[in-house]
């Protein structure tokens, strides 16, 4: 159920309980909220402060007021703008392929009766693999001398160059590593949506002579559209949260082929020690995730009202 | 749906393709971890070899146990704190009525969604001031930045699913409000609590970005040990695949143990599963 954000349905009996009841709930809520405030609000204001300073780590931490310099750079620096573009490409490719494949595999599993949940369990396994291991394993598989996948690509003549050493194939490889890990999440969510399509509706359509694609379009799709959007938002949020796979495979290279914005931020902060500018980049990323969070809250409310 | 034989065969062929794509990397990792260095360096992939435990042995001889302990401590303690506070606050949030509740909910969810690279920056400076770099305590705090909002949010969603009538019945029989929570609501959400704990554990056990930035020699976790194998000693694929197996196997086991509740956990309560 998704109606948990409004609280209207949960507090029905609370008028009778009076102020004593409210105070117990607040007492239970407060310790966590105080800790969360220390963990989130304090760093949040601190990163805003950082973004208006030149922060140096050399010889102890020092702050020097920089006004809006970091922010003007953010919008004029062609190198960072290039990273945003690269991020956009990476984001659309990973999330796009994951959505398409994930929905496809969910529809496939939905048609399979014998062994559906055994197959689902196997399919879900990549989701639990640490992203850093996905990256390192990806390096192993694509290693031009010892890699299993490199071997087959070479032997069949499909691709003979160094996979992670060539810009185009490096980008493709890190995208596919992400796809390998996270497509199962989309499958899991969409399959849950498919299981809730009433069978009577489908059988009625079947009797009416509708074929599979007609049923999919007119019966199934409308009832899973909400779940698909949830999957898209959840995946979008995580797609910009993590950067571990690229971090340990190409670290942005070759050239800038895989230098998505979190990699650029990390490099700006911890290789060039330009933490103030990195803070401005970080706030740009945060703006994106706040937009996604906002959309997610709206979906939750709509789904809550629908029930 | 009923299918004809041809359709059925096609469906299972498609499933086989999906399973090959999914499982080959994992199987190859586990297989390679048992290969001798000579077999690993063969330029033609082979499944015929004499298995050896030498990579696992070498890892534990070179101090892997320390990394395991750091991982367990950082992920475990952060999970325990997040789930305990998350149960209390999740219940409070699901039952409380107050102005601005939507804003509190939005704050919690956007904290969970904040990009790791952006969170690392202020924490790095603050940890440096506080002397928390290279300490397990620092990692526990870093993991709480995502585990705590996650646990509050998910537990809120599991508690919201319980019909209030159960607790009301307990109140009529003379229980206090806290007893109604402790004896009725909490046991009924046991699967939710276990799922929340497992997901918190997986997220923090699998973390690389925080650990590589904050941890030093005394607090490095397993993912750091794995990444160091790859750069320091050249390309030690044997030990790398062995450590990969050690990192991955327990998370797959605990993750699949709560498969029925995963949808709810991973969609932050927006979709209820199976």
Description:
The complex is a heterodimer of chains A (307) and B (274). With 307 residues, chain A is mainly α. Helix content of chain A is 73%, strand content 3%. In chain A, a hairpin with a 5-residue loop joins strand 1 (53-56) and strand 2 (62-65). In chain A, helix 7 crosses helix 9 (212-241), helix 9 (212-241) packs antiparallel against helix 12 and helix 11 (261-270) packs antiparallel against helix 12 (275-306). Mean pLDDT of chain A is 87; it is low at 1-21. In chain B, helix 10 (190-205) crosses helix 14 (259-266). The radius of gyration of chain B is 23 Å and the shape is globular. At the A-B interface, helix 1, helix 3, helix 4, helix 5 and helix 7 of A face helix 1, helix 4, helix 5, helix 6 and helix 7 of B.
Main features:
heterodimer, A: mainly alpha, MetI-like fold, 12 helices, 73% helix, globular, B: 274 residues, mainly alpha
Describe the secondary-structure layout:
The complex is a heterodimer of chains A (307) and B (274).
Chain A: H1 14-51, E1 53-56, E2 62-65, H2 69-76, H3 78-111, H4 116-124, H5 131-142, H6 148-155, H7 167-195, H8 199-207, H9 212-241, H10 244-249, H11 261-270, H12 275-306
Antiparallel strand pairs in A: 1-2
Helix pairs in contact in A: 1-12, 2-12, 3-7, 3-9, 5-7, 7-9, 9-12, 11-12
Chain B: H1 5-33, H2 37-40, H3 54-61, H4 64-95, H5 101-113, H6 116-130, H7 136-160, H8 164-172, H9 177-188, H10 190-205, H11 209-214, H12 222-232, H13 237-257, H14 259-266
Q: How many angstroms separate the termini of chain B?
A: 17 Å
Biggest interface between protein chains, with counts per chain? A-B, 118 and 113 residues
For this structure, what is the CATH homologous superfamily of the largest domain in chain A?
MetI-like
- From the spread of the alpha carbons, the general shape of chain A counts as globular
Q: What is the CATH topology of chain B?
A: MetI-like fold
Strand order of the largest sheet of chain A: 1-2
Give the class of chain A from helix and strand content and strand pairing.
Answer: mainly alpha
Radius of gyration of chain B: 23 Å
Q: Give the overall shape of chain B, derived from the CA principal axes.
A: globular
Mean pLDDT across residues of chain B:
91
CATH homologous superfamily assignment of chain B = MetI-like
Report the span from N to C terminus of chain A: 8 Å
Helix content of chain A: over 70%
> Helix and strand succession of chain A?
HEEHHHHHHHHHHH
Query: What is the CATH topology assignment of the largest domain in chain A?
Result: MetI-like fold
Secondary-structure element series of chain B: HHHHHHHHHHHHHH
């Amino acid at each position: 159920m998704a109606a948990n954000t409004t609280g209207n349905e949960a507090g029905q009996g609370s008028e009778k309980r009076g102020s004593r009841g409210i105070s117990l709930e607040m007492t239970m809520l407060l310790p966590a909220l105080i800790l969360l405030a220390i963990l989130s609000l304090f760093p949040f204001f601190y990163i805003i402060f950082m973004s208006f300073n030149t922060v140096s780590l050399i010889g102890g931490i020092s702050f020097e007021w920089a006004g809006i310099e970091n922010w003007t750079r953010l919008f004029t620096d062609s190198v960072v703008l290039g990273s945003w573009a690269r991020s956009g490409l990476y984001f659309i490719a990973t999330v796009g392929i994951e959505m398409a494949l994930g929905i496809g595999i969910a529809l496939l599993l939905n048609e399979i009766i014998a062994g559906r949940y055994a197959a689902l369990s196997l399919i879900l396994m990549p989701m639990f693999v640490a992203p850093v291991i996905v990256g390192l394993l990806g390096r192993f598989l694509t290693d031009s001398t010892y890699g299993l996948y490199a071997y087959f690509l070479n032997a069949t003549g499909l691709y003979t160059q160094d996979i992670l050493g060539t810009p185009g194939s490096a980008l493709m490889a890190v995208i596919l590593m992400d796809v390998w890990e996270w497509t199962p999440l989309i499958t899991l969510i969409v399959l849950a949506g498919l299981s809730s399509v009433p069978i009577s509706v489908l059988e009625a359509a079947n009797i009416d002579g509708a074929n599979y694609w007609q049923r999919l379009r007119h019966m199934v799709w409308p009832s899973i559209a909400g779940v698909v959007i949830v999957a898209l938002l959840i995946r979008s949020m995580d797609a910009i949260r993590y950067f571990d796979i690229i971090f340990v495979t190409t670290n942005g290279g070759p050239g800038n082929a895989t230098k998505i914005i979190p990699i650029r931020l990390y490099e700006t902060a911890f290789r060039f020690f330009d933490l103030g500018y990195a803070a401005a980049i970080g706030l740009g990323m945060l703006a994106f995730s706040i937009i996604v969070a906002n959309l997610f809250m709206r979906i939750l409310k709509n789904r809550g009202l629908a029930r | 749906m009923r299918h004809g034989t041809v359709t059925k065969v096609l469906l299972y062929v498609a499933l086989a393709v999906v399973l090959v794509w999914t499982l080959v990397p994992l199987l190859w990792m586990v297989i390679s971890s048992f290969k001798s260095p000579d077999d690993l360096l063969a330029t033609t992939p082979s499944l015929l070899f004499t298995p050896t435990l030498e990579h696992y042995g070498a890892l534990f001889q070179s101090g892997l146990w320390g990394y395991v302990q750091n991982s367990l401590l950082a992920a475990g303690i952060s999970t325990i704190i997040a789930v305990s506070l998350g149960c209390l606050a999740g219940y409070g949030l699901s039952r409380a009525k107050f102005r601005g509740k939507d804003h509190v909910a939005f704050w919690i969810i956007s904290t969970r969604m904040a990009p790791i690279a952006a969170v690392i920056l202020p924490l790095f400076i603050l940890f440096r001031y506080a002397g928390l770099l290279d300490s397990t305590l620092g990692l526990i705090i870093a993991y709480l930045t995502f585990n705590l909002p996650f646990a509050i949010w998910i537990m809120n969603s599991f508690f919201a699913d319980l019909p209030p009538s159960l607790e009301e019945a307990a109140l009529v029989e003379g229980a206090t409000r806290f007893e109604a929570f402790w004896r009725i609501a909490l046991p009924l959400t046991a699967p939710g609590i276990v799922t929340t704990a497992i997901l918190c554990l997986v997220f923090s056990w699998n973390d690389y970005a925080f650990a590589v930035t904050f941890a030093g020699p005394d607090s490095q976790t397993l993912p750091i040990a794995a990444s160091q194998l790859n750069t320091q000693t050249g390309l030690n694929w044997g030990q790398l695949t062995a450590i990969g197996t050690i990192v991955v196997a327990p998370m797959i086991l605990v993750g699949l143990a709560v498969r029925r509740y995963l949808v709810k956990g991973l969609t932050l309560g927006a979709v209820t599963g199976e």
